[in-house]
Amino acid sequence: MSLDGDGPIAADFVIRNAWIVTMDANRQIWRDGALAVAGDRIVAVGPTAQVMAQVTARDVIDGSRFVLTPGLVNCHVHITGEPITRGYVPDDTDWRTNVFDWLIPTYMAQTPAEEQLAATLASVEMLKNGVTTFIEAGTILDLPAVMEAVDAVGIRGRLGQWIQDRAFAPTDDQATLTRDAIVRLESQLDRWPVADDKRLAAWGCLVGHNTATDDLWRAATSMVRERGLGITAHMSADPADPDYYLATTGKRALLHLEELGALGDHLSLTHMIHLDDAEVAAVTRSAMRVTHCPLTAMKGGYGVTSHGKFPEMQAAGVPIQLGTDGNNNGNIADLMRAMYLLAGLFKDARRDGDLFPAHAVLECATLHGAAAAGLAGTVGALVPGMKADFVAHDRNRPEWTPLLNVINQLVWSADGRGVHSVWVDGQRLVDNYRMTNVDEEALYASVQAAAPGLIARAGKTIPCAWPVA
């Protein structure tokens, strides 16, 4: 807690008598704590008696029902296309069929209005599951429309139109494709800069895999480093990625990117399952970041438990953060489900209960995620001076009763269904399980009405193993 100065601290509101998981430098937990907010910032955190003695607040909220945590950070989520086609992709296809025969046609069939609708739904779903900041996976075709939709909901995010340039058709002009991709990336980074304390900004969102030429990797890396931004991209979810790089460059994917100078703390690569030991060493040397999406890995049969080297990367100090991806998961927004899986998958796969303890998993979902979004010291912890982005988990639920070890219960017992209230920039966007600034019924009705048309334009039907009358 920081309560400096002689006079009282003025606050807009204070929540008192709550459990508070601060994620501060000492990882302090208060069993009877208070948190005070002025404007968009936290101004005091500590024992209730001490905070209440030094804070003058316009509003006092009884927090005895709550466990307060920092807002979660989702570092890889597809917010267009998949949210409004939830569940229609079959779960008995391989990775290539899933992506190229189902997901890509869905992305390309969207209209700007549908992208806005999907982005609104995804933002609402994330907030209602305790996610206050996200990094878009880069599936956006109409970035201005999506920025507008996300801004209206109030979540914090780093977004970008997907960028790729590799010529796949014999008639493609490689030089033109590369030039256009670089111009497009530079344009969006200039239009939506990380400036003026805004919640939303553009990010370097490369598709990844084998879709970017060496020239694009070099240009994008230089561009984001000059601006102090980051790049997110998919890599090595399937052996196809290392196989491609071996066949075309003589080196596996991460070793080739290292040779290009593309690795570094600006870079977050998602999936990263099919790596060898030399690639893990390259990741470690570079201080780059890795985003694990356990929900998608399981649904897609990526081989994460048999091939994934996440325990080795964690042991080497590689920053690991979490994402929910898309891949038509049932829930693309509940990062708490991803925490649960990260805590358990490798314990079982390696028969080692020491791997990914709950406290380390919570760091992945908060502090590591904040750093990946370029927001270290701004979000990810409940510390005076940081943004007032936080979640009130409802203790009046069976999974929270009795409350004994709050970290274990956050990871192993709770999930997004227990998120009672959420604040971003000091604004209460979720109150008693309901959005405060979105007509949820109207949104859900619009999504239900839009989905069949999008699926039809993608040339797909909705498969089901059993007859539906």
Note the overall shape.
globular
Radius of gyration: 22 Å
Give the N-to-C terminal Cα separation. Answer: 60 Å
Relative strand content? 15-25%
Q: Which segments are poorly predicted (pLDDT under 50) over 5 or more consecutive residues?
A: none
Number of strands: 18
Class from helix and strand fractions: alpha/beta
Arithmetic mean pLDDT: 95
Largest sheet: 9 strands, mixed
CATH architecture of the largest domain: Alpha-Beta Barrel
CATH class of the largest domain: Alpha Beta
CATH topology description of the largest domain: TIM Barrel
Task: Give the helix level as a range of percent.
Answer: 25-40%
Give structural notes:
The protein is α/β, with parallel strands linked by helices and 469 residues long. The protein has two domains: 116 residues, Roll (Urease, subunit C, domain 1); 301 residues, Alpha-Beta Barrel (TIM Barrel), CATH 3.20.20.140. Helix content is 39%, strand content 22%. It is built from 16 helices and 18 strands. Strands 1, 2, 3, 4, 5, 15, 16, 17 and 18 form a nine-stranded mixed beta sheet that branches. Strands 10-11-12-13-14 form a five-stranded parallel beta sheet. It has a four-stranded parallel beta sheet with strand order 6-7-8-9. A hairpin with a 2-residue loop joins strand 17 and strand 18. Helix 3 crosses helix 16. The radius of gyration is 22 Å and the shape is globular. GO terms for molecular function: hydrolase activity. Belongs to the metallo-dependent hydrolases superfamily. ATZ/TRZ family.
